[in-house]
Task: inverse folding
């Protein structure tokens, strides 16, 4: 390996040890709902898991963290390969910082905000209260927010007032970290008016609504989520915004590497759950099959399908090769996603320029972006 690789690998290890030796700190910074996170099912789960891991480590049963300095050294060549694929220095620095965050934790490392212009302004809010539907998202209360894009670079959307079902914490994270709606290496990768967008892993459709606000009524946003409850929220997002409702095309489907119809009773949930699931229990489509039947172009694909991204990319092979859409693909559900997903993107289209973003102060929400140069 090169001197640069050796220097990088050593520097990453030294940095991780430096932050890891510091005392854990309870976070209080206001750009994230830390109290809500600690009370949420996810927060309680991670706190309990951290205590169990510490006990097992001290007892000699568990040797190390799944993502640790040793893990980084074992996979350094693959991680370096990913880093070298990234087209700009900002992406490389964010990739390094995301690795440090994963090797230490949000109690040791403060992941930086890099864009200080808010994307949306909240003009009003009220509680979400519709009979038969959950009123919270992972423990955080849902609201109906009137929001408006306010970024100077998105004048086309400035006049549009959208009514969004979501949480205040989600909107705060959007403004702080701009997930999926980033500028990299001279490009704004966001959807534009008239675009055809595929939102894979739409959940309650909050990002689907933002995409619809960007593409307008003449564009299309095709949502994919296999849970019927989530699809009902997507329909609500559309009905609350009649001027852009024609852009919504809502599919109660998983996306994967094969198309099939699940037989028997379709699974549902009585709570909003964006976590991983057994997609074999749900009807599924490949994006290639879906596009063949429904689309003559695709401009933007967002994927956050809880660890099934590689299969979904395999199922989108022809779409990606034919249309070369801009991509925003989650790459954090499994440690190996950090090299397998960028490798797959380059294999599908060697002409893609890859960039990277991390969009939360905790270890999830890392995204690989791709644009045809």
Result:
């Amino acid at each position: 390996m090169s001197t640069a690789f050796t220097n990088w690998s050593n520097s990453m290890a030294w940095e991780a040890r430096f932050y890891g030796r510091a005392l854990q700190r309870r976070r209080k910074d206001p750009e994230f709902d830390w109290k809500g996170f600690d009370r949420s099912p996810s927060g309680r789960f991670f706190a309990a898991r951290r205590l169990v891991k510490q006990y097992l480590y001290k007892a000699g049963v568990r040797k190390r963290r799944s993502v640790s300095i040793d893990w980084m050294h074992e996979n350094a060549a693959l991680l370096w390969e990913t880093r070298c694929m990234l087209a700009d220095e900002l992406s490389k620095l964010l990739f390094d910082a995301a690795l440090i965050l994963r090797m230490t934790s949000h109690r040791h490392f403060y992941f930086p905000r890099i864009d200080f212009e808010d994307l949306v302004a909240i003009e009003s809010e009220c509680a979400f209260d519709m009979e038969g539907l959950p009123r919270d998202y992972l423990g955080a209360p849902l609201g109906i927010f009137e929001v408006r894009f306010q970024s100077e670079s998105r004048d086309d959307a400035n006049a549009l007032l959208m009514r969004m079902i979501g949480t205040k914490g989600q909107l705060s994270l959007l403004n702080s970290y701009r997930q999926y709606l980033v500028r990299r290496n001279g490009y704004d990768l966001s959807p534009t008016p008239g675009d055809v967008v595929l939102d894979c892993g739409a959940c309650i459709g909050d990002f689907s609504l933002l995409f619809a606000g960007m593409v307008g009524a003449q564009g299309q946003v095709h949502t994919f989520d296999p849970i019927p409850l989530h699809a009902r929220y997507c329909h609500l997002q559309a009905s609350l915004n009649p001027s852009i409702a024609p852009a919504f095309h809502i599919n109660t489907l998983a996306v994967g590497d094969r198309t099939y119809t699940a037989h028997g009773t379709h699974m549902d949930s009585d709570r909003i759950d964006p976590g991983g699931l057994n997609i074999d229990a749900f009807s599924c489509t490949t994006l290639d099959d879906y596009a063949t039947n429904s689309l003559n172009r695709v401009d933007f694909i967002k994927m956050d399908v809880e660890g099934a991204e590689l299969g979904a990319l395999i199922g989108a092979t022809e779409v990606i090769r034919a249309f070369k859409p801009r991509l925003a693909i989650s790459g954090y559900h499994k440690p190996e996603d950090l090299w397998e997903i960028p490798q797959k993107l380059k294999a599908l289209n060697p002409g893609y320029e890859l960039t990277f973003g991390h969009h939360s102060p905790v270890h999830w929400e890392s995204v690989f972006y791709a644009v045809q140069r």
Notes: The CA atoms of residues 26 and 105 lie 11 Å apart. The chain has a mean pLDDT of 89.
